[in-house]
């Protein structure tokens, strides 16, 4: 499990400078609607207080269903602080970024091949074989 967290960290670190990250529930929903074939991984991140946010849980359910229907690998991430460090948790002006949903995309025609992404995708497929459709992982502390 730790190696999957490290692989996910590598994927995010590699995808960010390429512009292959979409951050935010609404931005992710728009991206999924426009071009789902471009999405290679969906991350849903929560903190303890988010469990009581009914609207967020509804969004998560819809995003999960869409990803499963479109064969997009999906993971739950528990460490939002580490996720914020990896993808930049603050907008210009100091406003926090909505990190509840993060998409990793691979633009059409791109030659981006990432062994870390292959490892994460393999973990997702193994989890589905065990009837765990949305596995939960922890990103390693930095």
TrEMBL record:
Superkingdom field: Eukaryota
Keywords tagged on the record: Cell cycle, DNA damage, Growth arrest, Nucleus, Phosphoprotein
Localization of this protein: Nucleus
Cross-referenced InterPro entries: GADD45, Ribosomal_eL30-like_sf, Ribosomal_eL8/eL30/eS12/Gad45
This protein's record includes keyword Metal-binding: no
Main localization, broad class: nucleus
Keyword Cell inner membrane tagged: no
A Pfam family annotated for this UniProt entry: Ribosomal_L7Ae
Ribosomal protein eL8/eL30/eS12/Gadd45 domain: residues covered: 7-88
Family indicated by similarity: Belongs to the GADD45 family.
Stated name of the protein: Growth arrest and DNA damage-inducible protein GADD45 alpha
Source species of the chain: Polyodon spathula (North American paddlefish)
Gene: Gadd45a_0
